[in-house]
Amino acid sequence: MPKKLTTAAVLFGLTFLMVRETADFYLMNGSYFWFAILTVGLYLIPFGIPFIHVALPFMAAKHRKWVVIVLLIISVLHGIAILQYTLPYTYTDEGGVGKATVNQAFRWIGVTSAGILTLIDALYLGRDWRPSLRPTVVLDSSAATVNKTGHLNKPFWKKVNQFFGNRRIRQVKRSPKAVKRYLIGINCGLPFLLLIAGELIIHFTFNGGGYSLEILWPLINGLLNLLIQVIAYLLFLPQLRGLKINQQLATIFSTALLLFILGWSLWLLAAKFSLATGFWGASLMLLVIIMPPYIVLPLISGRAVKGMVK
């Protein structure tokens, strides 16, 4: 218990340092607080969610892994938000007359805190979410049958099957080496290989003059790899059916698609509502382009290969 309390205190301190900066820039700055009033407090939610970090040491692993995914996304968004604010001052009144100088030391402390929290969230996720290549159902040579919901024939499901009828599992000859090559090569290695190769090509082609392109390349590469990873997943789907990693990859890709659509919608609505809406929409799209190909997929795929049944 003392260890958990100490961890909770450290998480609270890091969260406070991070949220202090984002609130200073996007809540207490000028007329931003009107967003909280006009949205009946909904605008305050992104500033309150990070404090759930304090409860992580006390949560059960089976529930914590889903909470950590949300917190990881929020931590990255807060870090991006702090970095995006480049003005040397904030407004102390709604009319934009009074100004206060931004403390750059606290700003970078906030960015560092967001990075540390993101790393801690990733460690929690890696410990709690233990993917493997173990089948979700036991297949044997007797051609076991399942009902239409995919459950094995247990007493209850036998009665259901009497009404709906049984169907045989279509067994696909699985190649563990091919699955390993897919997980390691496409999901773990390819994003970083193309990232490094692209940066080197840009640097030597433009003789150091392609600075803007060097900054944009990680984003272009992230989007390109996400498309490649989706296509590769669809191609390897017959090999992945019946494995836990299949469900996890499907969840990651579908979540990424939904978040990207949400971010795109917020960005399009920025012209009608506010620049803050566009900022959060752009940040959400940026998060989708960066997180899955560079962090989530390599982490999940690497742990799956490590726990792969020989």
Please give a structural write-up.
- With 310 residues, the protein is mostly helical.
- It has two domains: 2-128; 175-306.
- The protein is 68% helix and 3% strand.
- The chain has helices at residues 2-26, 33-38, 45-48, 61-84, 104-128, 155-164, 176-205, 211-235, 237-240, 244-269, 275-306; strands at residues 89-91, 99-101, 145-146, 167-168.
- The strands form two sheets. A two-stranded antiparallel sheet has the order 1-2. A two-stranded antiparallel sheet has the order 3-4.
- The relative contact order is 0.10.
- Residues 136-154 and 160-171 have low confidence and may be disordered.
What's the topology here?
Elements: H1 2-26, H2 33-38, H3 45-48, H4 61-84, E1 89-91, E2 99-101, H5 104-128, E3 145-146, H6 155-164, E4 167-168, H7 176-205, H8 211-235, H9 237-240, H10 244-269, H11 275-306
Antiparallel strand pairs: 1-2, 3-4
Helix pairs in contact: 1-4, 1-5, 4-5, 4-11, 7-8, 7-11, 8-11, 10-11
What's the number of structural domains? 2
- Spatial sequence of strands, sheet with the most strands: 1-2
Major beta sheet summary: 2 strands, antiparallel
Low-confidence residue ranges: 136-154, 160-171
Content-based structural category:
mainly alpha
- Helix-residue proportion: 55-70%
Q: How many strands appear in the DSSP assignment?
A: 4
Q: Helix and strand succession?
A: HHHHEEHEHEHHHHH
Based on Cα principal axes, name the global outline: globular
Q: What percent of residues are in strands? A: under 5%
| Termini gap | 38 Å
Radius of gyration of CA atoms, rounded to a whole number: 23 Å
Average pLDDT, all residues: 78
